[in-house]
Design a protein that fits this description.
Blueprint lengths: L2 H22 L2 E10 L6 H27 L11 E5 L5 E5 L5 H23 L15 E4 L6 E5 L2 E4 L6 E4 L2 H4 L5 E10 L2 E11 L11 E6 L3 E4 L4 E2 L7 H12 L5 H32 L5 E4 L3 H6 L3 H5 L3 H9 L4 E4 L25 E3 L5 E3 H18 L5 E4 L8 E4 H9 L1
Parallel strand pairs: 10-13, 13-14
Antiparallel strand pairs: 1-7, 1-9, 2-3, 4-8, 5-6, 6-7, 8-9, 10-11, 11-12, 15-16, 17-18
Helix pairs in contact: 2-3, 5-6, 6-9
The chain binds zinc ion (ZN).
The site of zinc ion (ZN) has 7 residues, from loops.
Length: 420
C-alpha cells in the first residue's frame, strides 16, 4: 500500500468513527451473552474451539516475551509460528492453525492495552509489577460484526475460521428487537462452557419514562442497603454446600495430581455459578433503585471493610458491584465521604458527634429519634441539597424535605459536619 492510499484509508476510518460516535449518542448499549451448544459440535469443531484459546495463550505469551526486550508495536501478528516453552521448560515452536488473523490482532491488542494500563498506574504512583504470562486465555475480542462473527439466525452463529455455523442458546432475548445493531463481541472460555458476549445498540425510546420519587440509600456493613423509604435490602449471596464440599475434597487430593486438577476445575465452575448469582442479584437491585428519578448515596470506602473483621461477609457481598454500577449513572448523586450523614440531625441541624458505630438508633437532644440507617439514607437527600446551597451564606434554610417545618442550619455546624 502506498503512503497516499494508506492516508486516504485512515481518513476514511476516522470519518466513519465520528459518524458512529454521533449515532451512538442516541442509542442504548447492552451486552447479551449467548451460550455455545458445545454438545452438538462434532469432534473437529470441539477441538477447533478449544485450540483457539490455547493458541491465543501461546501467542500472548510469545508476544509478551518479545515485548520484554522490544517495542510491542513491532511484533508481527501475521506470523503463524510462535515460540514458547513446553511442560518441561524446553523451547518449542508452535503453529497457529485455528486462530484467525483478526483474532491474532485482538490478542496483540490485548497486550498493548495491558502495557498501557500498567504505565498509567505507574504514572499515578502505584507500585507495579511485570505483566504475567497467562496459563489460561479466557476472552478473545471479535472486533467486527459480519467479519469475525455473524449471526446466521437466532439459533446459529458463524465464527471466523470455523467452517460451519454453530448452534447457540439465548439469542432470542435480543435477536428480534427492531433496529438492533451488533457491534463487537467477546468469545469467552468460562469454566461452565463457551459463550459469546455480544455488544448491541438500540435506539433510545422516544417516550419519557415515569420515575418514582427520589430516594436516598445508606450502605452499611450490618444491614447492607437501607433506603430512605425504610426498606432494607440484603446484598449477601451465600456459598452453596456443594462449593464447600468440593473445597474439602480438593484439599484431600495430592498436589499436582490429576484428581486435584479435576477438583480445581469443578471448583472454578462452582465459583463462576456463584459469580453469576451475585451479578444477577446486583443487576436486579441496581435496576430497582434506578426506577427512582434520582438516587442519593455516599462514596463509602468499601475496600477498607475488606481489611477489617468483616472480611468473609464482605467477600460475598455485592455491595461493591452495586456501588460501581450506580456511580456510572447520571441520575445518581454521590456525596463525598466528608459529609456527616449519620451525625447530622435533620430537625435541628445539630451535629451529634457522640453517636458511635454500635448505636442502631439515632437520637438527638431536640427529641428527634429514628433508625440509624433510615435516618442516614434520608439525610443523603437532604444534605446533598444543603451542600449545593452553601455558597458563602451565613445561614442555610433547609427545604421541607421530610414534611416537617422549615429548618435552619448554622453554617458553622455545616463546617463541623464537613470535618467529620
Ligand atoms: Zn436535633
Amino acid at each position: 500500500m502506498t503512503r497516499e492510499k494508506r492516508l486516504e484509508k485512515n481518513n476514511k476510518i476516522r470519518e466513519k468513527g465520528k459518524e458512529t460516535r454521533l449515532k451512538r449518542q442516541n442509542q442504548v448499549c447492552r451486552v447479551f451473552r449467548v451460550k455455545i451448544d458445545f454438545s452438538h459440535l462434532n469432534e473437529q469443531e470441539k477441538t477447533h474451539l478449544k485450540m483457539i484459546f490455547v493458541e491465543a495463550k501461546w501467542l500472548y505469551n510469545d508476544a509478551l516475551t518479545f515485548s520484554n526486550s522490544n517495542d510491542i508495536n513491532e511484533y508481527d501478528y501475521k506470523l503463524t509460528t510462535v515460540h514458547g516453552l513446553n511442560k518441561d521448560k524446553q523451547p518449542v515452536t508452535r503453529e497457529l492453525e485455528n486462530l484467525s488473523s483478526q483474532m491474532r490482532q485482538a490478542v496483540i491488542q490485548d497486550i498493548k492495552h495491558n502495557i498501557k494500563a500498567l504505565s498509567v498506574m505507574k504514572k499515578h504512583g502505584r507500585k507495579i509489577g511485570r505483566l504475567k504470562y497467562k496459563s489460561n486465555y479466557e476472552s478473545i475480542n471479535l472486533q467486527q460484526y459480519g467479519n469475525t462473527y455473524k449471526f446466521c439466525d437466532k439459533k446459529h452463529i458463524k465464527i471466523q475460521g470455523m467452517k460451519k455455523s454453530i448452534k447457540i442458546e439465548g439469542a432470542e432475548q435480543f435477536f428480534d428487537v427492531p433496529g438492533i445493531e451488533f457491534a463487537n463481541a467477546k468469545l469467552l472460555n468460562l469454566p461452565d462452557g463457551y459463550y459469546v458476549a455480544v455488544t448491541t445498540f438500540q435506539d433510545k425510546g422516544g417516550e419519557i419514562k415515569k420515575y418514582k420519587p427520589e430516594i436516598g440509600i445508606d450502605m452499611g456493613i450490618k444491614t447492607s442497603i437501607t433506603t430512605s423509604e425504610g426498606k432494607k435490602i440484603n446484598v449477601f449471596v451465600g456459598e452453596t454446600k456443594r462449593l464447600k464440599k468440593i473445597q474439602r475434597r480438593m484439599m484431600k487430593r495430592k498436589k499436582g495430581s490429576s484428581n486435584r486438577y479435576k477438583m480445581q476445575k469443578l471448583l472454578r465452575k462452582e465459583y463462576q455459578k456463584l459469580d453469576n448469582r451475585k451479578k444477577d442479584k446486583a443487576n436486579k437491585i441496581v435496576h430497582d433503585l434506578l426506577e427512582h428519578s434520582k438516587v442519593y448515596m455516599q462514596d463509602e470506602n468499601l475496600s477498607s471493610w475488606h481489611k477489617g473483621l468483616f472480611g468473609k461477609t464482605v467477600q460475598h457481598s455485592i455491595l461493591g458491584f452495586v456501588k460501581n454500577k450506580l456511580m456510572k449513572n447520571e441520575r445518581v448523586i454521590v456525596l463525598p465521604k466528608s459529609v456527616a450523614t449519620t451525625k447530622t440531625c435533620p430537625k435541628c441541624g445539630r451535629i451529634n458527634n457522640e453517636i458511635t458505630l454500635s448505636d442502631r438508633i439515632f437520637e438527638c437532644s431536640c427529641g428527634y429519634k429514628k433508625d440509624r440507617d433510615i435516618h442516614a439514607a434520608q439525610n443523603m437527600i437532604l444534605l446533598s441539597k444543603v451542600n449545593k446551597n452553601t455558597c458563602g451564606t451565613q445561614e442555610i434554610f433547609l427545604s421541607n424535605a421530610f414534611g416537617e417545618d422549615v429548618r435552619q442550619l448554622k453554617s458553622q455546624d455545616l463546617n463541623a459536619a464537613s470535618l467529620n
